[in-house]
Amino acid sequence: MELYDVMRRTFAAREFTEDPLPDAVLATILDNARFAPSGGNRQGWRVIVVRDPATKRALADLSGFAAKRYAAQVKNGESPWNTIDPPRVDAATIEATPPPPHLTEPIAKAPVVLVVCVDLKVVASMDQDLERVGVISGASIYPFAWNVLLSARHEGFAGTITTLATAQEPKLQALLGIPKHVAVCAVMPLGRPVRTLSMLTRKPVAEFTMRERWGGQPL
Ligand SMILES: Cc1cc2nc3c(=O)[nH]c(=O)nc-3n(C[C@H](O)[C@H](O)[C@H](O)COP(=O)(O)O)c2cc1C
After folding, report:
1. Helix crossing, 53-75 with 101-109: angle to 10°?
2. How remote is the CA of residue 35 from the centroid of ligand 1, in Å?
3. C-alpha of 40 from chain center
4. Pairing mode, strands 182-191 and 112-119
């Protein structure tokens, strides 16, 4: 496929056919994804390949906790889970909000789920002393996760980067035996997509660019 086509059409797949995703294909996907960049080329990624239905169910259920607040905040017109504006929904409202199935069930139903982790002992987190949430660390792992989706696409498969489960990271670590210094970055359901989207919704360049300084003319 032509590169720009791939970039414009690699979507978040949440519905999968019954087709298996064999280990050999998964190995090819990961063999290509590993060429992702990471800070200092430290390659701190570790991947747990989950096929056990009970473990997939547990991962989906752990995602439900954050999905409840996510859905409650979206319903209230908020940008969910952002670290700047405190949630305007109360605990009782969150508790009464069911987790939307499209945020949990793909994890339970996909033929394979990758739990993508990063070893924080090898990640240079330049923003760790700032008074805001850290974002730099993610740049050493999400290019890898994105490469998994690009490689999967090349092999006729698809999936989604999901992060809701990480709100329950200690439980994930206990479930899968992950050490404390290893962060869970994504829980990625993968499989053969039921349908292929070709038109993704994204803002135009002029909406997010500024010449020379914040507030400058768009490119
Ligand atoms: C960092 C990150 C976290 C995400 N977390 C979730 C998630 O927890 N659950 C989910 O269903 N999708 C998740 N997504 C997928 C996004 O919803 C998806 O990429 C976005 O809506 C664009 O979808 P599209 O490419 O199909 O248009 C996440 C994506 C990224 C990059």
Report:
1. 170
2. 22
3. 22
4. antiparallel
Residue 47 CA neighbour count, 13 Å, CB half: 20
Give pTM, 2 decimals. Answer: 0.97
Q: pLDDT (tens digit, 9 = 90+) per residue, 131-158?
A: 999 999 999 999 999 999 999 999 999 9
212 C-alpha to center of ligand 1: Å? 30
Cβ partners under 8 Å of residue 35, min gap 6: 147
* Residue in 62, 150, 161 to alter for ligand 1 test, most ligand atoms within 8 A of Cβ: 161
Q: Distance between CA 106 and CA 153 in Å, rounded?
A: 17
Pick the atom of ligand 1 nearest to 13's CA: 26
Distance 12 CA to ligand 1 centre (A): 6
- Structure token pair of residue 106: 């793909």
